[in-house]
Every structure is written in C-alpha cells, then in structure tokens.
Amino acid sequence: MDHYEAGDDPGVTFCIGHHEPNRSLTVTADHVIRAHESNYDMLTVPITTTHFHSRVLSLLSSYLSDLESPKSDRLGTMATSQNTRPLVIPPLTKLDSRLTPNEAISQLVGVTSSWIDLCSPDPLIADLSRQVFMLEVAYAAFCGIGYLLIPSPKLHHGNLHSEGVVYYARAVQDALSLGPYIQFHIWLKMVDNPEMEVDTMGDLAPFARQEYLQPEPSSSTKIDPFGTWDAWDLVRKTCKYHSRLLVALSMPKQLPALCVQSRWHSEPVHLLTIDASSFLKNPKGYPVLSKAHQAFIARLMRLRTPPWIILCNVGPVPGLDEPEESEGAQSQLSPSEYPSLKASKKHHDPTPHLSYIRNLQERQPPRTPIERFGTGYQDYLQAPLQPLTVNLESITYEVFEKDPIKYEWYERAITKALKDWADQKKPTSHPDGKVIVAVVGAGRGPLVTRALKASAAAGVEIDLWAVEKNQNAFVLLQRHNENLWDGKVTLVQSDMRSWKGPRVSRLATTTTETQQAGDESQGAGNAASETSASPSGLSDGVYTHVDIVVSELLGSFADNELSPECLDGINDLIHPAHGISIPASYSAHLTPISAPKLHSDIVNQTVSNPAAPETPYVVMLHAIDFLSTAESTTNTEPLNQHSSSRASGTSSPTPATEFPTPFVQTAWTFSHPNRNIPPPSQTSSTVSNAHNVRQTRLSFPIQNRGVCHGIAGYFETVLYGDVELSTNPVTMDAKSATMISWFPIYFPLKTPLNVPDNGEVVVTMYRQTDDRKVWYEWMVEVYALERTTPTAAWLASPVSPAGRSGSPGTDTLKGKDPVARPQGSGSSQPGFRRVRVGMSEFHSSIKEGCLM
Ligand SMILES: C[S@@+](CC[C@H](N)C(=O)[O-])C[C@H]1O[C@@H](n2cnc3c(N)ncnc32)[C@H](O)[C@@H]1O
C-alpha cells in the first residue's frame, strides 16, 4: 500500500467552545470574534434570563399558596383534575431572553434552563417544566439556533429512581418537532452518582408536593455505572433513534471503568463537556488532564464525527465575560514550555485550560496508514459484493492490492507448500515434474506474481495457470503475462466451475508460441478460452490435475462471497491424493454488539428499502460496544477493535487499553479440497448445494446491561500450515496485523433487544441455499438469570459493573475459541434458572441473497 509521510496527515482539529452558565449579555458577532481571537470556536448562551426564572418562581409560589393539598380521588389516583389544574406561563417578554437573531447565532450553542424538572413526580412541576422547556425551544428555533444543550433528566426524587425519565423523553420528542433544524444534545454525566445530583437555589424540583414523593427512609447513594446511560436509552428510544438527538457527555474528574467508557464511545457523543474541576494541576500549577482522560478524548476524536469540546467554568473569555482581561495574550505552549505561575507576568495565560486542550490537539497521535486508508468509512454501511454476477472494476482490485499483508502471507503460504511438496517428494501432475499451480479468480494478477516469486524462493519449478471470469480483468492478465511474467502463465478466461483443468502435453514444452483456443467442450456462451505460452502441441494435450489451487474468494464472513461454491466447482480438478488448496480452510466468527448509529441509519434506509433491516452489511465498525466480553471489564488488555472491509477502506487500530476483549465465537468452517461432496443425484439434473448449508447456536454471557442492535461477523482462514489471516478482533493482531482488505460484516436486528445485567444472548444463525443462491438467517434471544432459591452466594454477590460474578446459560459454550472464557456459568449455578426475556424475529437475507 501507499506509504504516507507523517507530514501528509493534517491531524484532527478540535472544535472548542466556552460555557459560562451565567453569561448575561447579548452575544453579538463582535463577541464571537473576540472568542475566536482567544482561540475558542464557539460559545454557549442561556436561552432565558434570571428574570424569566424569577417570574416562573413567583408564578408558582402564588399558585401554590392558593392550592389545596393534593388528594386522591375515589379510585385512588392522585391525578385528579384539582391536582392537575394547569398553571400557564405567559409568553416570553424582552426581559426573559437576551438571545436575538443575529450573525452570531450560527456560532452559538443554546442552553435550556437547568432549574426545571421535567421528570418531577408532581404533575404540576413536571408540566410547568415542560412549558418552560417548550417556550425556550420555540424561541431558540425562532432565533435560528442550530444546537441546543439540554440539561440531563433528574434521576432521583426521594426514594423514586428514574421514574420520570419518560416524561422528559416525551418532552424531548415534542421539542424535536418544534425545532426542526435544531440538533438536541442531552447533557449527561457518564455514571449516575446520586450524591452529585443536588438541587440548587431556585430549582423547581424541591417544590414537588410531598404527596407525590415516596418517603425516603433508605435512599440509595450507590453509584450506578449505567444509570445515566439507561436514561439516555429510554430517551432515544422514545424518540425513535432520531438523527438530531445526540449526547453531550460530561467528563468527570474520575473516569469510570472501561466498560462504561466503551458504552459512551458507541453512542452519538457530539459534545464533550469538561469542567475546570476535572483538570489536575501539573507541578507548575497549570491545568492538565490525566492520562486516562487524554486516552478517552483521543478515542472519541477518532470517531467519524469527533465531538466538539466545551470547557465549563474555566474563567471568562478575555474581553467578553470580563473585558479587563482582553489584553492577555493567548499562549500555545507545550507542557515542557509551560512557565511557572511564579514566572514573570508577561507569560500570564488568561486561558490555560484552553491552551492545554489546544496543545492536546497538537499531540494527538498521527493516524496510521490504515486509519487514513479507511477515513470516511467508519460506520458506513456497504452492501456486500455479488462477485459472481458483478464484474469488479479495476479500481476495486487496486484497493485490494494495497493490502500490505494479504499478498505477503499468500506468498509465504505458497512458498511453504512448494517446499513441503519438494521435501516430501510428492509426485506432480505434470509430466515434466513441475508442480501445477492454478490461481483461480486471478483478478488483475497479484497472486500470480506472488506464485512466481514463491516458486523462485522455494526453488521449485511450477507450471502456472490463471483462471478469471472477469473479461475486463482478463485483458490486464494478458498484458501482465507479456510484460511482467515472460509469458510463463497459461491464462484461462472462464468461470472456474466450468474449467476442465490444465492441459499438458506429453511432449517437452517450449515457450515460443502464444495461442488462444476455444475449449471445445464448452458451449459458446461460457466458453473457456486459454491464452497459452506453453505447452506446444496443444492439440495433443491431455487434461491433468492441479497440484496446488490458490484462490482468494473470501468475504467479510468468510463464505459470504461464495468461496465454497466456487471451489466446489474445481474440487475434482485438484489432485485427489496430494492436491492442496490455499486457503485450506476458513471459518466465520460472530459476537453480539450494540451499534446505535448503524441501527439509526438502517431505520432511515428502511423507508426506501424494506429489505434494509434484513441485509448483512460490510461495515468498518467503529462506534460500537461489544456486549459480551471475555475478561473482567476492568481489564486493560490491548486490542484492535475493528477489522477491515472487502472494498474501499480499512480498520482503525486503536491504542492499547481501549476496549475490554470481546467474546467472539466460531459459527462454522469450510475446508478444501472437500473430500465429502456427495455424488450428483441420479434423479436430478441440478447439482445439490445442500452440503454447504451450515447452522449454529451460540451463547454469549453479558456482563453489563445494554442494547443488542445486531451481530458483528468476522473470519479467520488457514492459508497453509501456520500461515493464517484473520479479521477476528481477538486474533487479528497475532495472525495478520495491519491487514486491510476486509471490514467486518454486520447482521442487524429489526428491533433492538435490551439485555439485562448478568444476562445472556443466544444467536441462532443459518447459511442457507436453494441451489441457485446463498443467504443467511439469524435470530437473537435474550435470557435473564432468575433466582429460584435464595442463596448466600447470591446475596453476597450483587451485580457488579466492574466484574461479573457469574453468567447464565453458557452451556452451549464449547470452548472453540482460544480466548479466555467469561467467568462463571449462571445456568449451572445452583439456585438459578434462565428465563427468556426477549427474542427477535427470524431475519432472512434471502431477498439480497448471493447468486450462485
Ligand atoms: C476478491 S477477487 C481477488 C482477485 C485477486 N486474486 C486478488 O487477490 O487481488 C476475486 C476474483 O475472483 C473472480 N471470480 C469469482 N468467482 C469466480 C469464478 N467462479 N470463476 C472465475 N473467477 C471468479 C472475480 O472476478 C475476482 O476477480
């Protein structure tokens, strides 16, 4: 592949904003220019003023003073007409907002009021909050605001936990229609820490009437690592994965476990807010972020849409919130250049947090060639190739040929096979003693070149044949044979399934003649034609076997581009005793994933393409979360999360300590030559493909609750001996690191399935065929672990986010994969049983099946 100079990479540019919660001015274009001069890219603005806040509070208190205490009606409901009598907030006045439609508006992120409580259990407070929110959204939309930051739902009300999030979600759903050009960012903490959720002066929450609150004898103060994610999940589901509904993630001083970081990495985090309190101080007293924070930011910045960073409570923008500071010069210093605070005044940096983040931007690790190769393909859904019915373009072959590993590994495999052939003194199928090698599906010929190199490296003479059905690529093969290969290769333009095999002369060969001969045994339509430099006396030639067949017909899920069917077509041509196929075998691997972005894209596509949710896609998986991981979630083993695509693009190896290792299992395997193909039926003219049907049912323990949107698929292949290729994230580094030819495959679920903590996902999958095409069928079941008898063990092992105590129903784990198995096996634990709590429909890609 191309070599990139480090200087070629423009790197990531951070977009950085400034948040001042009490900004009390009308932000104009001048202010924005001043912010730009200070090196900020944008500013936040509150939609309404303290005047509006006071107005709502006085309205509420006078209303409450006239109100009778809430009572239940005869049916025991508190929602009587008396209790829900509406309090209507009059429209905004000029004192209620400083926002005005001006040239600055596109550089602003509006912030709705944080003092409301859309989740309040008191219908009066919830409704009042909803009105405030709607007035603010409507006014922001009127002014032309494009981005809104919506403070998070309040999760704790006395003893009630997350009960009102659905009211919040419903209000956001309305807001999406009210502001049709606004992107809504729900401002969420990474974890739910009840102690961090404190009411401040003027908040509406404390006005909730006691009658609606549960008594609070033992209110839990336990941190729930997935508590805020749960709230987000509810909101985005209510809003049907709306494309304008995004996450603003607040980065805490103490980062949560990797499994929580991974979860947020898979969600549409478009704003990342960093409060001054999340910074540490370096020895010189300057604000810096911990290594873990830096790594998390680096991870987010490699996403297809990197989030904007908003700095909060970091002091004023010079000349804006505090005009006297405007003289201060903006500094851009590397950490070593940071002056001591005690240093002279001329080094005073008025925006040290911003300088640090800008410096961090400069220090982002350069993207690897592979990352650059895949730029723009992260989470981009591509339909798999139809290799038999569609002839590839030259540019597609060109992309394949950039792979720095694949061809190298093929050459190693062929070299080893030839050496072994010679060492084992195996007879050859050629009367001259040459080993007959056929590259089938030769494309533009890179494997042909490698086979010639392997022959030279091994010191073993070969008779080389190249078979290709793409007539356009065949032109290049002819040209290469003349210019690169010295006419040493016999070219056959044919579908390999109708090729009769190599013909050799019993006579000694010469290489003087080039001729094209119709294969008399073929019909005119699919005639195989040979362009041959040898042997001479072709008319006397006899068909013989191939000793080594070399092919590269693999798809992202191994067999999905019909390698088994194509190689079956030449199975009988391979020498029955000594013949070798490179690859010797290949297997499909899978694991369930959370992939909200892919789900949202497929939902959108379904409008025009009803088959969209039942299509397996080739996709460079990036914003995903592995639901089943093989090790403790606090594990920090290095891992490349993603592999690559068949087509245009590649994987993005991610730095170490990024992801818990996924639990990836083998679905099925194919081997070649296949000595077990049943003989053709006496009673049917069509050849049965039933032997290429496969089925599997695999169980995946789930540590942390989440949503299963679909299944990620990978492949591994043994080319020859110990020479292997892999896109499986668990083995790819060991087997074929930096290979770029394939992205993973993704089997979506029409309806995502929620999975509980310590749950289990069971995937059932088929490879189906009707002798004309091949397709896949898949379904997912979700199991929860139910306690049947109380045991001391259960009481002593509550659900732990940082390391599960056991997993249910792993009885189908057959230990096929050489990875550490998740601990425990819930179904075999005494006192537990598996309960099915969710199930997808059977999905089938028959409409998009691969034609044989
Ligand atoms: C993935 S490409 C590989 C091309 C080349 N070997 C390489 O590695 O760059 C697969 C090639 O096999 C060819 N092919 C697929 N099925 C075939 C068949 N049944 N008979 C002949 N060629 C086939 C395709 O046209 C394509 O050129």
Give a summary of the structure in a few sentences.
The chain has 852 residues and is α/β, with parallel strands linked by helices. It is built from 17 helices and 34 strands. The longest helix has 21 residues.
Could you describe the 3D structure shown?
With 852 residues, this protein is α/β, with parallel strands linked by helices. Among the domains are: 289 residues, TIM Barrel (Alpha-Beta Barrel); 125 residues, Vaccinia Virus protein VP39 (Rossmann fold, 3-Layer(aba) Sandwich); 177 residues, Hnrnp arginine n-methyltransferase1 (Distorted Sandwich), CATH 2.70.160. It is 22% helix and 22% strand. It contains 17 helices and 34 strands. It has an 8-stranded parallel β-barrel with strand order 1-2-3-4-7-8-9-12. A 7-stranded mixed beta sheet has the order 17-18-15-14-13-20-21, covered by helices on one side. Strands 22, 23, 24, 25, 27, 28 and 29 form a 7-stranded antiparallel beta sheet that branches. Strand 10 and strand 11 form a beta hairpin. The two termini are 32 Å apart. The N terminus is likely disordered.
Could you list some keywords that capture this structure?
elongated; Rossmann fold; alpha/beta; single chain; 17 helices; Hnrnp arginine n-methyltransferase1; binds S-adenosylmethionine
Average pLDDT number = 85
Q: How many strands appear in the DSSP assignment?
A: 34
- What is the CATH top level name of the domain at 16-64 and 87-211 and 221-320 and 351-365? Alpha Beta
The CATH H-level superfamily of the domain at 16-64 and 87-211 and 221-320 and 351-365 is: Divalent-metal-dependent TIM barrel enzymes
Assembly state (oligomeric): single chain
The main sheet comes to: 8 strands, parallel, barrel
CATH topology group of the domain at 16-64 and 87-211 and 221-320 and 351-365: TIM Barrel
Which overall shape is indicated by the principal axes computed on the Cα atoms?
Answer: elongated
* Share in β-strands: 15-25%
Using the 3D structure, state the CATH architecture of the domain at 16-64 and 87-211 and 221-320 and 351-365. Answer: Alpha-Beta Barrel
| Largest sheet: spatial strand order | 1-2-3-4-7-8-9-12
Rg calc: 32 Å
State the distance separating the first and last CA atoms: 32 Å
What structural category arises from helix and sheet content?
Answer: alpha/beta
The low-confidence parts are 1-7, 323-344, 508-527, 532-539, 632-645, 647-657, 796-826
Bound molecules: S-adenosylmethionine
